[in-house]
Design brief:
The structure holds two protein chains of two kinds. Chain A is mainly β. In chain A, 0% of the residues lie in helices and 50% in strands. Chain A is elongated. Helices cover 25% and strands 39% of the residues of chain B. In chain B, 33% of the residues are buried. Chain B is built from five helices and nine strands; from the N terminus they run αααααβββββββββ. The chains are: A mainly beta, B alpha+beta. β5 of chain A pairs antiparallel with β7 of chain B.
């Protein structure tokens, strides 16, 4: 299981800003190891962000997203104490879900 | 009382297995969503903008000045971590995709934006070499594109 995500969600007037830092190798499948063998691609494919259970962003990623991916966006609404949950699944089928409350 | 019971049975009969599992608390809603999501392998395997457009099911995108890059450098010192921010000012924007012309695979990420979410996202990507970066926006079923040339001092894909 991967390390927890760092999630920050803050209200800015009538909208909420969500910033996430995930912990993942995001191996591109282009690199070779010391023996010249290609290191297989290993990357997050799907990300979903929910606010009190309602989807506010979903994404499909390829191998070109950087290691330890960062993501930031805003949505309308959200109040202090509301629940923000983020989950991802990678190409090996590993999953991770974390949540925070809006500050 | 009977009426209530009938309604309960009716609603229960219409539930899918996924719904039942959710109701039983066996899977958390977030996990179920992540599993139900698809990953467009065909689109992520493409090597040219026209192929990517085909895989996404769109025609030639129209150039648009309503797509703006923000917090995106002209020159990236480290190709492994290039910040990219894209804002679409096109009404009814449904999704924003980031494509890197000279990467082994063009498509880096697709963000689906539901109503109520601002049509602006920022993330970090890897770039193999200096290249055009495209922001592809789907709005009201049509595709729009904007490009930005980013110079990379040190590539982020090779060994």
């Amino acid at each position: 299981m991967a390390d927890p995500m760092k999630i920050r969600a803050t209200t800015l007037g009538d909208s909420t800003e969500v910033k996430v830092l995930m912990s993942h190798e995001m191996e591109s499948g282009q690199r070779k190891d010391a023996q010249g063998q290609t290191i297989p691609a290993w990357f997050i494919q799907n990300v979903i962000v929910t606010w009190n259970g309602r989807t506010v962003l979903s994404a499909q990623w390829g191998t070109a997203v950087s290691k330890n991916p960062f993501l930031s966006f805003k949505f309308k609404g959200g109040a202090k104490g509301d629940r923000i949950a983020i989950s991802w699944m990678d190409n090996r089928g590993d999953k991770r879900s974390d949540e925070t409350v809006i500050a | 009382m009977d009426e209530m019971r009938r309604r309960l049975i009716q609603s229960g009969g219409g539930m899918t297995l996924l719904g039942l599992l959710l109701a039983a608390g066996w899977i958390k809603p977030e996990e179920a969503q992540a599993q139900a999501q698809t990953w467009n392998k065909a689109a992520f395997d493409t090597h040219s903008l026209s192929d990517t457009m085909k895989a996404l099911g769109g025609g030639d995108p129209a150039q648009s000045k309503d797509i703006v890059f923000f917090q995106t450098p002209e020159i990236a010192e480290n190709g492994a971590v290039v910040p990219i921010g894209v804002t679409s000012n096109i009404p009814k924007t449904e999704s924003i995709a980031i494509l890197i012309e000279k990467n082994p695979n063009l498509l880096a990420a697709v963000f689906d934006i539901p109503t109520g979410t601002e049509t602006s996202i920022s993330t970090r990507v890897k770039m193999a070499q200096s290249s055009n970066v495209y922001a592809l926006v789907k709005a009201d079923g049509k595709y729009y594109v904007a490009a930005k040339d980013i110079k990379v001092t040190l590539g982020g894909c090779g060994g």
